[in-house]
Design brief:
The chain is α/β, with parallel strands linked by helices. The protein has one domain (3-129): NAD(P)-binding Rossmann-like Domain (Rossmann fold, 3-Layer(aba) Sandwich), CATH 3.40.50. The chain has helices at residues 3-11, 28-38, 78-91, 105-113, 125-129; strands at residues 16-19, 43-46, 52-53, 56-57, 71-74, 95-98, 117-119. The strands form 2 sheets. The chain has a 5-stranded parallel β-sheet, with helices on both faces. Helix 3 packs parallel to helix 4 (105-113). The protein is globular, with a radius of gyration of 13 Å.
Length: 135
């Protein structure tokens, strides 16, 4: 699949999880979560240090989610992304969008070795879906 096809497959249906979601509205982990909400897409914030983000219950890990999630956006440092990919494989995730700055060659290779749809080195979901900063 080319990049557009991988993005279309990712956006085909939810729910989604945002790994690296942040309570800080200035951080991309918060903006990506709000982007899903702005587009009325069901998304779960993943942050082991937060109990709530933007009024939504936050979860410590993919394994803690109340339902199966096949698609995740990752906004973490590259070395953390490598751990996230391993957890995603164990959780049955099929699509991973590594946001710019989260990519790791080892994480990408691991995901591809497990036949996951990987979006990395491409556009940010904020650009693809369209994001508006809101108060």
């Amino acid at each position: 699949m080319n990049l557009d096809q991988r993005i279309d497959a990712f956006l085909e249906k939810g729910p989604y999880a945002v790994v690296g979601a942040s309570q800080n509205r200035e951080k991309y982990g918060n903006k990506v979560f709000r982007c899903y909400l702005q587009h009325d897409l069901k998304a779960y914030p993943i942050n082991p240090s937060a109990s709530e983000i933007e009024g939504h219950a936050a979860y410590a890990s993919l394994a803690d989610l109340p339902e199966q999630v096949d698609r995740i956006s990752v906004i973490t440092p590259p070395e953390v992304t490598e751990q996230v990919v391993t957890q995603a494989i164990e959780a049955g995730v099929k699509h991973i969008w590594m946001q710019p700055g989260a990519e790791s060659p080892a994480a990408i290779q691991n995901a591809e070795n497990h036949d996951l749809n990987v979006i990395a080195g491409g556009p940010c979901i904020l650009v693809t879906l369209g994001y508006t900063e809101s108060p």
